[in-house]
Design a protein that fits this description.
Order of helices and strands: EEEEEE
CATH architecture of the domain at 27-93: Sandwich
CATH superfamily of the domain at 27-93: Jelly Rolls
Oligomer: single chain
Largest sheet: 6 strands, antiparallel
Radius of gyration: 13 Å
Length: about 100
């Protein structure tokens, strides 16, 4: 058994503490400006409350409360907006290593 505590950016586990996947929780923080990127693994977004808007392969996709979105390997994506500002969500990345952007 292993218990993880979140760091200042909301990441609970990943390569830095020997986890095979990365998990992040985000709530109420300002959204960091993100560049379009892709991975060679799937990434999951679970919205706990509010609405998260993403750009995926140049299409705008909204994910609402208790919806789970899977971004497949090779799909370009970025988070565009969250509403309200207190929108909370969890990101799970299937793989964990220091440079996990392809």
């Amino acid at each position: 058994m292993k218990k993880f505590l979140a760091n200042q950016d909301g990441w609970y586990c990943g390569y830095w503490n020997n986890s095979p996947l990365q998990i992040k929780y985000s709530s109420g923080r300002p959204l960091k400006k993100e560049k379009v990127h892709l991975h060679n693994f799937s990434e999951y977004y679970l919205v706990l409350n509010g609405t998260l808007t993403l750009e995926i392969d140049k299409k705008i996709v909204k994910v609402g409360k208790l919806e789970l979105l899977m971004i497949e390997s090779g799909e370009s994506h970025k988070i565009v907006k969250k509403e309200p500002k207190s929108c909370s969500y969890v990101i799970i990345k299937e793989k964990s290593y220091s440079n996990n952007k392809k």
